[in-house]
Design goal:
Helices cover 61% and strands 0% of the residues. It is mainly α.
Length: 259
């Protein structure tokens, strides 16, 4: 979907409806920013090597971040596309509100435009999965679902699928927003932002992960556990060695030579 409305708010609405329209799109936009920010954080955490943590007890926080943030992404995405409660702010209710409050002289033209603002086939397929996850896991925990591994696997939405769903939501928002483009990420999370020279370009989650990595006894083992480090080093695969040295460089430690 590459639709963009050609009108201004004043073209479509009288003064009071213009103000309510802006409030509605602001609420929807903030929710979508929250979902996109949540997925940004999850992607950063997913890149963090959990094998730096020596035991499962040291991974609880990051696991909770991923689980809860993914739930947030699913809820916001599913609600934005499917919630038809008149008191809710969603794409369907925003379309209905726009048509019902538009100026009489432009209503037919607006109606024809809104008829094309609909989810595509890929969006619908992803939404089917998202709605199932929302209903069976997040909102209502189906008691026998965890016992069905195949069904759980079929329901799971991958990170790329969730990103596609949020991309579709951004396109839908742009098609309904009568105004300049809006970013779906806060500035610290946006790749479009250019940081001034000398300013730390890392986002808060990246700085937090760097602190966790720098505190990892395993990452510091070559310096602090020299007697046992050779045994640890032998157990690492080539990919893990590359990752190990990447994170050593990232937190300001010297690379480790692997024979």
């Amino acid at each position: 979907m590459a639709l963009r409305p050609k009108w201004s708010p004043e073209d479509l609405f009288d003064e009071e409806p213009v103000q309510e329209y802006e409030r509605r799109v602001d609420l929807l936009w903030h929710d979508l920013v929250r979902a996109n920010s949540s997925l940004y954080v999850v992607n950063k955490v997913a890149d963090f090597p959990t094998w730096f943590a020596p035991t499962p007890d040291d991974q609880i926080f990051l696991q909770l971040v991923v689980r809860n943030f993914l739930d947030q992404v699913v809820l916001v995405s599913a609600n934005a596309f499917t919630d038809k409660n008149p008191r809710s702010v969603s794409f369907p209710t925003l379309k209905d509100w726009m048509l019902g409050h538009s100026r009489q002289g432009i209503r037919d033209e607006l109606s024809a435009y809104l008829a094309h603002v609909e989810p595509g086939d890929d969006t619908i397929a992803l939404l089917d999965k998202a709605k199932t996850v929302r209903h069976k896991i997040i909102a209502h925990l189906d008691w026998d679902l965890p016992l069905d591994a195949q069904r759980m696997a079929e329901m799971k939405l991958s990170l790329p699928e969730l990103q596609r769903l949020l991309d579709h939501a951004e396109s839908m928002f742009s098609a309904l927003y009568v105004g300049p483009g809006r970013s779906m990420l806060p500035p610290p999370y946006s790749e479009a932002v250019e940081h001034p020279s000398g300013m730390d370009p890392r986002s808060d989650v990246e700085r937090l992960l760097d602190v966790l990595a720098a505190d990892s006894a395993f990452l510091r083992a070559p310096d602090e556990q020299k007697e046992v480090w050779p045994y640890h080093a032998k157990s690492l695969t080539h990919a893990q060695r590359e990752e190990f040295n990447y994170w050593r460089r990232r937190v300001g430690l010297a690379e480790v030579p692997f024979d």
